[in-house]
Amino acid sequence: MRTKRQVAANDRDPPSVEEVAKDLHACFWYRRTVSEGTKGPLVYEVTKRQVRRCRDGLPERSVWLVLKRSLGAEPTSWYDLSHAPLSARLPLLVWLSGVRWAIEPCVEEANTELGMEHYEIRQYPGWHHHMLTWMLAHFFLWHLTIRLGKKSPSAYGVAVADGAGSGVTPAHVYD
């Protein structure tokens, strides 16, 4: 016999993220340096909570709610939802929340150096593919600049063909 499972009606609405942050005791907040900012290190109090994400009023999956708040007399709170595995530790989630500050300069540099700001994409998969492509192109150029030390007129970093017998070949550049 088939039966249909239904979620029981709830008497009250679920708490908002602000209410969850206010109701947490001080012992659950951990002080962490998220990243190095332009005015010094960014220090926040961070905690994580496992929550169940809902869609159309039905529970969907468990995710991490990562809560951050500033230090001071009147702290302000931010939150992120993370689809990281449930075994993810707090330091990993703190590091991932700080990676955003490293990605923004990468986006700006790629826009100016590669001319990738002009795009017309209508759906998320196309946008994701475009962003991944230009980030990889930017990383490739950044890596070549570090490896070769400067911009080179040739593809292998050798200014002219090795006609004089100096022994410098593209293989030596990569070694």
Give a verbal description of the structure:
The structure is a single chain. The chain has 175 residues and is α+β, with helices and mostly antiparallel strands. It folds into 2 domains: 17-98, no CATH class; 119-175, no CATH class. The chain is 35% helix and 24% strand. The protein is built from 4 helices and 4 strands; from the N terminus they run αββββααα. The protein has a 4-stranded antiparallel sheet with strand order 1-2-3-4. The longest helix has 25 residues, at 90-114.
Gyration radius (Cα, Å) is 25 Å
Helix content: 25-40%
Biggest β-sheet: count, sense, barrel?
A: 4 strands, antiparallel
Oligomeric state of shown chains: single chain
Poorly predicted segments: 159-166
How would you briefly describe this protein structure?
This protein has two domains: 17-98, no CATH class; 119-175, no CATH class. The chain is built from four helices and four strands, in the order αββββααα.
Topology overview:
Blueprint: H1 17-23, E1 30-37, E2 40-55, E3 58-69, E4 77-82, H2 90-114, H3 124-148, H4 170-174
Antiparallel strand pairs: 1-2, 2-3, 3-4
Helix pairs in contact: 2-3
Question: Tags for this entry?
Answer:
175 residues, 4-stranded antiparallel beta sheet
